[in-house]
Amino acid sequence: MSHIGLYWVHGRDAKPWGTKSQGLRDVAAEFGLEMLAPDFRGVMDPDQRVRMLVETIGDRPGPLVLVGSSMGGYVSTATCHELDVSRVFALAPAFGLPGYRWQEFPWLQTPVEIVAGWRDA
Are residues 94 and 46 in contact, defined by beta-carbon separation less than 8 angstroms? Predict the structure, then answer.
């Protein structure tokens, strides 16, 4: 397996190994990548999830890629403030919601690819 750290960050009411993450895990495996998916169920505070993700990743060497859906997109992007992240893929990210620490990300230097659905606001 590659030394790239690939993490799936699930949304608020989702689970770590749902349909999207299993599909991504299978595609990643075709490229020799292992994907990890921390479990944030029961933690409703997005910024607490950021702290948990930072602790989970620790000082892992190598490039770090975060993929997050909904609240997980916010968590992945906000984690860039704490860790050296190579790239973020945010699926329908929960940006601009009340109660989230970061409403904008002026410090962000990491490339972020945002994918939104046809009906996303």
Answer: yes
Radius of gyration over alpha carbons of the chain, in Å? Answer: 13
pLDDT surpasses 60 at 97:
yes
Q: What stretch of H or E contains 111?
A: none
- 13 backbone dihedrals φ, ψ, rounded to 5°: -105, 15
- Dihedral sign, CA of 58, 63, 37, 51? positive
CA dihedral 22, 57, 76, 97 (to 10 degrees): 110
CA distance 92 to 70: 5
Q: Identify the pLDDT of residue 2.
A: 62
Beta strands 64-69; 5-9: pairing state: parallel
